[in-house]
């Protein structure tokens, strides 16, 4: 199951490189509050909210608030989110504060992020106090990241956050989907077909699949490769097992109790659907710009 942070959870710590190659650590205890923003350089929502987030970073800097902006998108089809693309934006003076590359997508996965932008406010104790969008409308600059600012004001004043959760709104994070395989197993072609057909059935033809051959025991150990074929999203095995890395063939249990060299199609579809969830796929997601029904409570 994919973990998704909720308000009140401890914020996962991370160390990520900035565009100069320097490591930046999420260290909540070093600041009165920290804002973690998952963002991107090609998403129109992220671009629309970008100036407002930079304004927050500048306005709250003297109140000991750190704003860490994290790019987790797989850059294979999104070169604007590559280290080179990020460096261009920093050189152009577009960023107020650290611009961090989550190349292995581990931070995004740890936070359960689905959108760009997606905002988390973390207090001095390391607890998530706000999660959601910067404000209610990316197309309205006058909103001025009001939800984020209000959450920060509450945290800095030692109050409970009045509006702790809103629905992230934006583009989906572009996950790296990998099929890891070893030539000693005969299932590679069938596994590749199964993965692509399942993505197509889910309506996710836009997802790029990277097929990676694992050739040596050293490579298997480095990747945590438990056998062939392995289906991974964001460097995480969709079917995690407690076995040591090895050049071997995997066996998948099926619902009818039998074993198979490939996972059950329905089970693979369910795990892909969850791992690749977009903001609007999540339960209780609400479009902040959509008027409430006339008979709904105020």
UniProtKB/TrEMBL annotation:
GO molecular function, one term: oxidoreductase activity
Thioredoxin domain ranges (all copies): 5-157
Annotated coiled-coil segments of the chain: none
Any one Pfam family match given in the protein's UniProt record, by short name: Redoxin
Domain of life assignment: Bacteria
Protein name per UniProt: Peroxiredoxin
Protein source organism: Geodermatophilus obscurus
Upper classification of the organism: Bacteria, Bacillati, Actinomycetota, Actinomycetes, Geodermatophilales
